[in-house]
Amino acid sequence: MVRKLILFLEMHQPRRLRYGVLDKLCDLRGNEINESVINSIIFNDEVNREILNRVADKSYIPTLELMRDLGNEGFKASISISGSLIDQLLMWRPEVIDLLKELVRKGVIELVTEPYHHSLASLISGDLFLEELRDHVEAYKSLFGQVPIVFENTEFLYRNDWGILMERLVRRWFSLRVLIGCLVGEARHTYTERLIRELSYY
Is the CATH number 3.20.110.20 carried by domain 8-199? Predict the structure, then answer.
């Protein structure tokens, strides 16, 4: 018999690049280099905004509003919001951030941290991986006033050496206690002490 169900949702939108980015960057003169110019060359923000608006209207807002309504009846879920999506929501759809803040404040959702850009940083470099995790934790602290206690790697990727890295890391950053596949932590509202003991394997 199932005693507890952990509903985990991911929110992510990549920030799409323009075609021919490298050629355009190579053509820049020294006096033309600044963040605004580089961003306009690198990112295809017309497409990014269009896709974000469509997904926000058809998915994010209706789902989050449903979660808010169900939260009044005790519904809770864990959710990860990639840093690239947070950046885009802040630029173009801040009302989604406001809805997320409300759900976090009411305890309907628990934030789960991941590499900031929902990237494969863990496959490239331990330092890059940790940098993206720190950036994501800082974004959550800044926006939502909450330090996540659960971690998941992009697409639930896992290797034993990452588990060892996370075990060391959690002693410094978080009060994480469980390592299950790629989820690390004790979700505030989904785990019980007994379930943690049953699922823990280290």
Answer: yes
